[in-house]
Amino acid sequence: MDPDTQWLYQLLAEVQLEKFYLRVRDGLNITRIEHFAYVKESDLEQVGVSKPAQRRLWDALKRYKTTTRPRSWMAKVFSGRAPDGTDSGPGGSDPGSRGLPSLIQDSELVLGEKLGSGSFGVVRRGEWHTPNGRVLPVAVKSLRSKQTDTLTDFLQEVTTMQSLDHPNIIRLYGVVLTQPLKMVTELAPLGSLYDMLRGRQFEYPLARLWLLAAQIAAGMEYLEGRRFIHRDLAARNVLLAARDTAKIGDFGLMRGLAEETDHYVMSAHRRIPFAWCAPESLRVGSFSHSSDVWMFGILWRVEREGERLERPPDCPQELYSVMRKCWACSPSERPNFSQLTTLVAEARPMEVQATREFSDTRKLGLLPNDLLTVIDHGLELCEWKGQNQRTLAVGWFPASLAAPILPASRQPPAQGPRGSPSRPLLGDPGETRRDC
């Protein structure tokens, strides 16, 4: 961004018109505040500024001229650096605490390996050397293009992220306003859920996958409550801060809903993730909380056929039933994320304990006290299917060997949202079964 016209960006941003920055600067040749004296309504209409937006702009100009120290949008959003030079952002306190985003100097960043790239530019691993001497691991998104649409998406993402505060949503630390523009966020060192599912799908605990699903639902419930539509909820945009901690990221396509509407209709010629879009999004470009729910339902498995996904072989029936609810053709028949958070919590897979050793080359091997995550079970079944949490192997085992988990053997449960249940969901393994 040209330092000489940073005032123009701040002025437009105060009235939510920052996307017109390049059009106003270059199209109308506005480089000084005095130049607005020669601008007509027709000039602003020519660059896409509507009449209601023009009124907001003229009002902002009056305030700019009459106020000696205007409180700009930039100051409100990026007040991590106070006017006296002190640092009130994440660099000045506990890195885990939530503070307002900061204006970051490019010299404070040390960039490392590339983590990803796209039409917007490149994301790199980095370190932020904060003014008070703290060093934070970060991810740095650099804007490659100066095209208006790309800049608009970048600014939209920054504006959105600065208002978000949830443990399952990637946190924005701040931005660099010198060229190239950079967005600095917390680092999720284990990469994306997509990479994990593709690379380690046969050696990942099913109980942990349920926990990640519960966390993603909780993060989306938070966005839903703030009337945000993500529009790009995919496994590649869910990042792993730790083995048992998922965070939703990439808010470039996210849009806020006005109070009087329940959906957003996409303008023509915009990029959308066709492969996991809801039917109404593909037909008429309509996005809503319900279309995000559809995306949540296909988050865990990528298929190329244009059909509803079959139940994965190692997916508990309870969780698959939740996925099916997300794929209702009518948006009104899908659960909202508040309901979905409860449904996922209630679908927590049952866990049992092996009572003795079991060895059969065709079955799931067990040692005494092995903890098992149950996939298929029922009082009428002689054998249950499950995953051995010690070996991560999946297979069938005699149901008679399953017993309730003893308190001394159970690991402290990683709680999902709202204190998810740890009890068995479909019967207790201690109940009497049909003789097998």
TrEMBL record:
It catalyses: L-threonyl-[protein] + ATP = O-phospho-L-threonyl-[protein] + ADP + H(+). SMART domains: TyrKc (SM00219). Keywords: ATP-binding, Kinase, Lipoprotein, Myristate, Nucleotide-binding, SH3 domain, Transferase, Tyrosine-protein kinase. Its EC number is 2.7.10.2. Residues 78-99, 407-436 are annotated as: Disordered. The keyword Metal-binding does not apply. Residues 109-351 form the Protein kinase domain. ATP binds at residue 141. GO terms for molecular function: ATP binding; non-membrane spanning protein tyrosine kinase activity; protein serine/threonine kinase activity. It is an enzyme of class 2 (transferase). Pfam families: PK_Tyr_Ser-Thr, SAM_TNK. Residues 347-407 form the SH3 domain. This is non-specific protein-tyrosine kinase.
